[in-house]
Amino acid sequence: MERQLVVFELGTEYFGVGIDAVESIVKMQEITRMPQAPEFVEGVTNLRGTVLPVIDLRKRLTIKITEETKETRIVVINLNEMKVGMIVDGVSEVLTVSDDIIEPPPSMFSTVDTQYITGIARLDERLIILLDLGEVLSVREKMALQEM
User: Residue 135 belongs to what H/E stretch?
Assistant: First the structure.
């Protein structure tokens, strides 16, 4: 079986999420900070007339923060009828991968807590870490984002 992934970068690593969860990819725009939000929540932005909560995926996954560049994007995901923007360092491609090149996450992982990972796709010389968006936005965070 095959799946389509949106592949993006955080630092020097490649990450992927199912294309079915991605609503759009937009250039970085002004974000309004929200008081008492979790540290990884950057705030909210106005996206085509809708107030969209935005998280910094680097902070959420405890990856070294880098400077914003012209490649920085907000990946808008729709997860169980909730829209959230995720700041990433850049979006590189959409690709189709076969399930047979996806391995389960190793028990010891240095970059990201394995609770956020569904697997790792091996593509030629690079590895793509597949994220579990349900875990990245756990119940507590979903409730906090919905209140914004």
Answer: helix 133-136
Q: Token digits for 129?
A: 């870490």
Distances (CA, A) of 125 to 98, 100, 107: 16, 17, 22
CA distance 12 to 23: 24
Distance CA 95, CA 122 (A): 13
> What tens digit of pLDDT does each residue of 97-135 get?
999 999 988 766 545 557 788 899 998 888 999 998 888
DSSP 71-100: T-EEEEEEETTEEEEEEESEEEEEEEEEGG
pTM of the model: 0.87
The closest of 11, 35, 21 to 112, measured between CA atoms, is 11
Structure tokens at 80: 């169980």
| CATH-assigned architecture of domain 2-146 | Beta Barrel (2.40)
DSSP 47-67: ETTEEEEEEEHHHHTT-----
